[in-house]
Specification:
This protein has six helices and two strands, in the order αααααββα. It has 188 residues and is mainly alpha-helical. Helix 1 packs parallel to helix 3, helix 3 packs antiparallel against helix 4 and helix 5 packs antiparallel against helix 6. The longest helix is centred in the C-terminal third of the chain and has 27 residues. The chain is globular, with a radius of gyration of 18 Å.
Length: 188
């Protein structure tokens, strides 16, 4: 197994630890969400790193093509579901985001069946960036607040990032479907 694939697997292995610390109610006080935040950031950075290494050193594998996006979806969806439990994010937003992931994954399977590769779009990359930023800010807000007057600045920034991620989720879904609508047509 090459280094990018090891980083991908490391990201998957980090997920249960992340979930444990984010949802733990043991007597760690504000340390638990900070540990969860550190784990999430490390896992997110491995996503960026494994792709760069794979492309730079021509280490792209079928395993990596399959497992890397799956690991990303597991990390983000786990975080968002946990944040529902912590009453930090509305469930309807998470449903839309997860539904988009299922739709695009199914769409990519159909395309792959016809030997068509659907690359990540600019909108998809923006979506992921804002999702990660929103999750980081929401977790940080579990551990602390930064008040200016009556306004919790971290909370406000988290909400802005979250709703931006939601809008980008919808835009990226539409973008994928429009650009690749030929995939949906029956192939003989």
């Amino acid at each position: 197994m090459n280094l990018p694939n090891k980083l991908t697997m490391f990201r998957v292995i980090l997920i249960p630890f992340f979930v444990f610390f984010l949802l733990t109610d043991i007597e760690l006080g504000r340390v638990a969400p900070i540990l969860a935040l550190i784990i999430f950031i490390v896992a997110s950075l491995t996503d960026m790193l494994d792709g760069k290494i794979a492309r730079k050193y021509n280490l792209v594998t079928n395993f990596g093509k399959f497992m890397d996006p799956l690991a990303d979806k597991l990390l983000v969806c786990s975080a968002m579901i946990c944040l529902i439990e912590l009453d930090r994010i509305p469930s309807w937003i998470v449903i839309i985001i997860i539904a988009r992931e299922f739709i695009i994954s199914g769409f990519r399977l159909i395309a792959a069946d016809h030997q068509i590769v659907i690359a990540a779009s600019m909108w998809g990359k923006f979506k992921t960036t804002f999702q990660m930023a929103a999750i980081i800010l929401l977790i940080l807000n579990c551990a602390c607040s930064l008040r200016i007057g009556n306004v919790d600045v971290i909370y406000v920034l988290a909400q802005i990032a979250l709703y931006a991620a939601l809008v980008l989720t919808v835009i990226s879904l539409i973008d994928y479907l429009v650009k690749n609508r030929a995939v949906l047509k029956e192939q003989d």
